[in-house]
UniProtKB/TrEMBL annotation:
InterPro entries: DgoD-like (IPR034593), Dipeptide_epimerase (IPR034603), Enolase-like_C_sf (IPR036849), Enolase-like_N (IPR029017), Enolase_C-like (IPR029065), Mandel_Rmase/mucon_lact_enz_CS (IPR018110), Mandelate_racemase_C (IPR013342), Mandelate_racemase_N_dom (IPR013341). The keyword Aminoacyl-tRNA synthetase does not apply. Signal peptide: none annotated. Its EC number is 5.1.1.-. This is Dipeptide epimerase. Pfam families: MR_MLE_C (PF13378), MR_MLE_N (PF02746). Mg(2+) binds at residues 183, 209, 234. It comes from Candidatus Glassbacteria bacterium RIFCSPLOWO2_12_FULL_58_11.
Amino acid sequence: MKFSYEPVCLKPKHTFKIAREEVEGDKFENVIIRLEHEGVTGWGEAAPFLIYGENQATVVAALETFRPLIEKWRDPWKAEKMMAELDGALEWNFAAKAGIDAALYDIQGKIAGLPLCSMLGLDPGDTPLSTFTIGIDTPEVVRSKVREVLDCPLLKIKLGGPADLEILRVIREEAPKASIRVDANCGWTPHKALAMIEELVDYGVEFVEQPLPPSEVEGMRWLHARSPLPLMADESCERLHHIPACVGQFDSINIKLAKCGGVRHALKMIGCARAHGLQIMLGCMLESSVLITAAAHISPLVDFADLDGAVLIANDPFSGMRFESGRMALPEGPGLGVIPR
C-alpha cells in the first residue's frame, strides 16, 4: 500500500483559548495522511494536542515508524489486524493512528461504493445537532463572536477564566434562545465548580464538561453527588479502559477520534459507555474536514455532537461534512466523502 503524508498548519478564525494555556493559539499543526491501494486513495488526518503528549513532530516520527508496516499491507479489509500491528510497533500516538484508521475506512468505503455511515448501517439523517464553540476571551470579543453565529441553536462556551459569569451574561443577552453547554477544561476546584454550576442553572445551561482535572477523582465524586447539572468527562476519559471509572463521577463522556485512536476505537467506546449507562458526545480537536467528517459519519450513534472544528478554521484544505446552522450534512460520496480543495 502506498503511503504519504503532509504536515499542515490550520489557522483558526479567532485565537482559540481555553482554561488550559497549552492549548491556546493562532495555529494548529496537524498532518494529512494519504493511503493508496490499487488506485484508490484514502484520506486521513492526525490532529495532535500537547495535553495528550503529541504534537506534529511526534506524529511525523510515529508515521515514519509505521511506514515499513503500512507499505507491506495488501488488503485494506484486514484493517483490524493492521491497526493491531501499529499498536504492537508503537504505544500511544493515538492521533497518528486515528489518521491512518480514517484513511483505511475511506478506502474501504470507496471500494464498496458506500459512504462510511452506510457501511456501518447508519442513517445519515440521524446526525444530532452540533454545538458551535465560543472560546475564552473578553466579554466584548465574546459578544462579537456570538453575533457571528446567531443562527446556531447550540453553543458550547469555554469557561475557567476570570470573567466566567460576565461572559455568560453577554451570551444570554445576544442569544437568549440558544441552548448552552459549558466546558471548563479542568479549570475549577471542587468547591469553585459547585458554586459555578449552581449559578449556571439560572442561565439555562444543559450540562458541564470536565469541571476538574482528571487527578481529582474524589473531588469529582463529591461534585457529582451534589451537582444540579449533568457532568461530562473529556480529559478524564481518553480511551476505552477509562470508561468504567467514569461511573459515579460523570453522567456522560466526550469521545474524540484523535484522543482514542480512531473510528474503530470510538465504536468500541460507544458500546462500552452504553453498557455503563453513560450518555455520549462526539467531540473534536481543531481539525480539517477530513477527521471531522469521519467523526460525523458515526454521530448517529451518539446523543450529542461537538464537531465544529473545521468551521472554526480559516484555511480548511478539504471539503466534507457541511455545518448548516448546527445541523451536520454528511457528504454523499463513498468512504468519508472528503475532497481536497
